[in-house]
Amino acid sequence: MSGKLKPGAQSISLVKGFDILPEGGIQLISDEIKKHLDIPVAVLMGANLAMEVAEGQFCETTIGCKDAASGQMLKVLFQTKNFRVTVTQDVDVVEMCGALKNIVACAAGFVQGLGLGDNTKSAVIRIGLMEMIK
């Protein structure tokens, strides 16, 4: 497929999650995209709800891009006065944290939905962050 793309084409993935490999283990989605397109893949991850971004509410995100110059170009493309962008070259960590953060967010939502209180929700978030660090 890369033969159909213009030279110098780049991509950015907003996909959070992991690809489960048939032989066992996991693979980052950006690695799967790179395998098929054979072009550099940056990632954009943040705790953002699409509706709030569309409404112009303040949001922040992180772009992981191995090439610093491309990362700054992507920052210029995405950043607005209400959408703050931070760029780092550690693509894999940005992508992993984006996926793992969603697991913690789901757990916090379950706690809230069950009415278990803010202390329990805070504990789930704190313990989840500690697990992410591990």
Structure description:
- This protein is of the alpha/beta class.
- It contains five helices and six strands; from the N terminus they run E-E-E-H-E-H-E-H-E-H-H.
- The protein has helices spanning 29-37, 50-54, 68-78, 91-113, 118-133, and strands spanning 11-13, 18-20, 26-28, 41-45, 59-64, 83-88.
- The strands form two sheets. A four-stranded mixed beta sheet has the order 1-4-5-6, with helices on both faces. The protein has a two-stranded antiparallel ribbon with strand order 2-3.
- The longest helix has 23 residues, at 91-113.
- It is globular, with a radius of gyration of 17 Å.
How many angstroms separate the termini?
37 Å
Q: Share of helix among residues?
A: 40-55%
Question: Which sheet architecture does the biggest sheet show?
Answer: 4 strands, mixed
Structural class: alpha/beta
Overview features:
134 residues, alpha/beta, 4-stranded mixed beta sheet, two-stranded antiparallel ribbon
Question: What is the fold's blueprint, element by element?
Answer:
Elements: E1 11-13, E2 18-20, E3 26-28, H1 29-37, E4 41-45, H2 50-54, E5 59-64, H3 68-78, E6 83-88, H4 91-113, H5 118-133
Parallel strand pairs: 1-4, 5-6
Antiparallel strand pairs: 2-3, 4-5
Helix pairs in contact: 4-5
Care to give the gist of this entry?
The chain is α/β, with parallel strands linked by helices and 134 residues long. 48% of the residues lie in helices and 19% in strands. It is built from five helices and six strands; from the N terminus they run βββαβαβαβαα.
